[in-house]
Amino acid sequence: MTSQDSRAATAAADEIDLRHLLGALVDQRWLIVGITGIFFAASVGYALLATPIYRANALVQVESKVPSVPGLADIGQSLGIGSGKAAATTEIALITSRSVVGSAVDELNLDIDVQAVRFPVLGSFLVRRAEAKSPGTLAPPWLGMNSYGWGGESLEVFQLQVPDRLLNQQLTLVAGEKKGAFTLENSDGGVLLEGRVGEPAERNAVKIQVGKLDANPGTRFKVTKLRTLNVISDLQDQVQVIESGKDSGILSLGYEHPNPLAAQEFLQHVAQAYVRQNVERNSAEASAQLTFVKEQLPNVRRQVDAAQASMSAYQTRVNSVDLTLQTKGLLDQEVTVEGGIQQLRLQQAEMDRKFTRDHPAYQALVRQISQLEGRKASFQNQVKKLPDAQQEILRLTRDLQVSNEMYTALLNQAQQLDVARAGTVGNVRIVDAAAVDSTSPIKPRKSLVVLIGTLLGGFIAVAVVLLRQLLNRGIEDPAQIEELGLPVYASIPTSTSQESDSVRGRGPGDGKVHVLAIKDPADLAVEAVRSLRTSLHFARLEAKNNVVLISGCSPHAGKTFVSANLAVVMAQAGQKVLIIDADMRKGTLHKAFGMKQTPGLSDILVGKASFEQGIRAMPGLEALSFISRGEVPPNPSELLMHENFTSLLEQVSSNYDLVIIDTPPILAVTDAAVIAHHAGTSLLVTRFGLNQPREVELAKKRFEQNNVKLKGAIFNAVERRTTGYYSYGYYQYQSTED
Length: 738
What we know:
The chain is of the alpha/beta class. The chain folds into four domains: 3-50 and 444-471, no CATH class; 54-243, no CATH class; 295-428, no CATH class; 487-729, P-loop containing nucleotide triphosphate hydrolases (Rossmann fold), CATH 3.40.50.300. It has 26 helices and 20 strands. The strands form four sheets. Strands 13-20-19-14-18-15-17-16 form an eight-stranded mixed sheet, with helices on both faces. It has a five-stranded antiparallel sheet with strand order 2-9-4-5-6, with no helix packed on it. The chain has a four-stranded antiparallel sheet with strand order 10-11-1-12.
């Protein structure tokens, strides 16, 4: 065989054959069914045992905000700073804010976690069954295990105060024998305090007040005082708020919890706290603006009084001066502009409290004031052209009218703000109160869990089979061996009888025969060995002697099985056969024949036993003799290279028709290469699915490097496959009686 052929065979072995992969799935169908069944059972168990989760839902509407402050608020809106429609993202952030969620936590005491101790694994499932069967009834303990809760028990803790070292530490409350009595223990089982329902109990810096305790005596509850900030943070993540439709102003609230009543109560408190906060926020805004207006009223009143006094004094001094038509026109325009400037100044003072001077709305207000100041300057230029008497009367009249109008406007605004503050209702309302369907949990979705679990199991099973097939590219067709230049003398199918009676892994010999050709001569594997006997008969015609060496590529290839059964069928055919266990390290032929390990080959080679003492006849089969491995020597290879071994083989070769030598694996040690020089026929055992083409090729090269030519190969432990050699290579053909 050329190196080019070898490379082609190796490349062919590395290719992925889709037909073989599909065949592997069919062959491993029971493994796939088993793994899928396990996942199916696990999915069903999870669907039945998992704690159901319920979802509470509520609906809140955020309406367009109506200005609660007349006058000044309208000016702000004209400048583009009106609130308009509340942004959904802002309202969602407010709903899940720490103040809103924290309000619900405080009202419901959610920083106190109370859970009854359940029986491991099945406890929650049994409790749900008991409560569904007899709601509101306290279930009796099973088999006297009263430390667990079995359904119907309840504990309400109104108050729990612990030192910082016990925060987030699990305490245990044990129901007492007397009704209403209880004991609170720490995590080490030490008693912290004892108390009764409805009465505050305090000891060791721990204070607790239990409002309700309904449980069997001895029932244990896990009680934990949680850090309030951590509880609020967790609940903020769990509350789900989404807007139903873009810019609809309708917010949908959701919250999931194992207890449907707890989910409903918490979500309702969150919605109510959000509405309450909205009303308080709007009312506070109106109050702040009312305070600002009231602060301005005294100043404007003083301006009115001063302007009126100046006007009276001037009229008294000059007796009376009438305004001309031109002066009246200028007066009306200047009063209008001055009134606008005064109102914008008030708005500017209010915006100083809300925005920075760089805010776009503030800058727009400043620009509008500047425009009015420009018009006012233009009017003043025209006034300077009037006579002095007309200028003075114009100025005094203007100041008086502007002051009066501003004062009147502020009085009206103060009254309107007072009404707005008293009647503030907010722009948020609860459309649908929190509700939960206690008959239909949203998790787990049992049918979906079972379906996904089963599909996942099937996928993993198929992946495992395909991965094993891809990673373990062992030979599954004798054609692969023949492509490497080794003729296959026999393909021996796997035998269930041999698998159950194998000597591999057994302890000391039990004195019984474990050779398949003797125990079950009609087995299909034995028939394959008989075909090997026939093939070997013709192969030995050109051999230099009657010594047959049988080796393997690696351990567990089945060389001992082949050697022992070949020796038996040869002896049964009337030939005088000697089988030698030359694997002096791990040989097991003595176990297969039910004989002792010593004396054996190593003892003969070192002179501890004679040739006659080492050879033992097989009871019931006189044509078969056997030499065991003997004591394990420190230097097996050196013993095999000694002239004593050569003399032994020469002597037995002349006394027997056939000498079979079972040797160690060639890729493990060099013993087989040493012995092969004395053998006329050398055979290599390869195992189905175990040995790879590269191993066989390497083993062949190892023999060739020692000037030994392998006669052929034996394909052992061939399994039935949907695609492959054994699928059509052998048929059961047993004799029957009429």
